[in-house]
Amino acid sequence: MDPSVLQRALDREKIKTKKAEQLLEKKSLELFNSYETLNESHKQLESALSDVKEKQHQLLQSEKMASLGVMSAGVAHEINNPISFVVSNIASLAYAVEQFHEHYKFVSSYLSSKSAEDQKALQEFSKKADLEYLFEDCSGLIDETSDGLKRVKSIVAGLQDFARADTGVMETVDVNQCLLSTLKLAQNQISPNCTVVQELAELPEIKGYPGKLSQVFLNLIVNANHAVQDNATITLSTVIDGPVILVSVTDTGCGIPAEKIDDIFTPFFTTKPVGQGTGLGLSISHGIVEEHGGKISVSSVVGEGTCFTITLPVQQDGQQEQQIRKVA
Questions:
Q1: Model confidence at 66: pLDDT above 70
Q2: What domains are there in the chain, each with its CATH number?
Q3: 327 partner at 20 to 30 Å CA-CA among 127, 134, 138, 167?
Q4: 119 near 111, Cβ under 8 Å?
Q5: pLDDT digits over 2-33, tens only?
Q6: Are 270 and 256 a contacting pair, CB within 8 Å?
Q7: Which comes out higher in pLDDT, residue 320 or 241?
Q8: How far, rounded to the nearest angstrom, does the alpha carbon of residue 208 sit from its chain's CA centroid?
Q9: What angle do CA 177, 180, 184 make, to 5 degrees?
Q10: Is the separation of the CB atoms in 234 and 194 below 8 Å?
Q11: What per-residue confidence (pLDDT) applies to 324?
């Protein structure tokens, strides 16, 4: 056989072998890439599963808080009944003490014209019983008790307003009153060393859902308190700006880092330690404000504080201009 023919056959086989090796190398690389892609997908699935478990835990905590809210509404209703008759009884007791005092003064005046012996007997009795002190002390105790009961009744009323379900139809809302009522509910959450400043302007009433707005205000006030240290200030302010009302909750706390500002309204995002926040509060608040046709914004400087501002549209009822309510 011609050697040249054999050489050409050998060259063809070498070319085929080289192509086969290249194809095998290509397939091996594709297989390796597929393995890497599959491995990355597996890691992503594991991460997603971990996130789902965390979200389930957060939802469970949120559900517990919702149940606590329902239970609190029932407790408020039960407390309200005894408070009503205690307030009535205190009023009757105050009237009785006043009448006893008037009777004592009448007897003292009457005996002033009687014998020295009768006057001395009354003086000794009064001194022994310490009547003047008792009259004065009872008056102070009754005033303090009445004031305390009024505060409790106000808190219970605010709790009932907060816990009640909205009717689904927008009502007339006094934003200042709603804010102040919510502040009373949050008062026990605020550090005693933290000063709350109120800068409330005269505002027109708007149409809205009072229970939902209270939820937004409560969330912002509680968050502000969590962000501050002792001797800090939380400022609640309202102002009318043309067609809108601006409600601001400002604190002199730790502030929010710039890289986290864009995420604070994202569901389940929280800057609080594990177990201290569900990450739903601001997200829900954002939705509620949008439901009212408004918007919520935030500005913050690390180490100086944070300001949340809610913008709510002023709505007119027909052709009648709404009355401006002064802050009490």
A1: no
A2: 168-328 (3.30.565.10)
A3: 167
A4: yes
A5: 677 777 777 788 888 888 888 888 888 888 88
A6: no
A7: 241
A8: 18
A9: 135
A10: yes
A11: 36
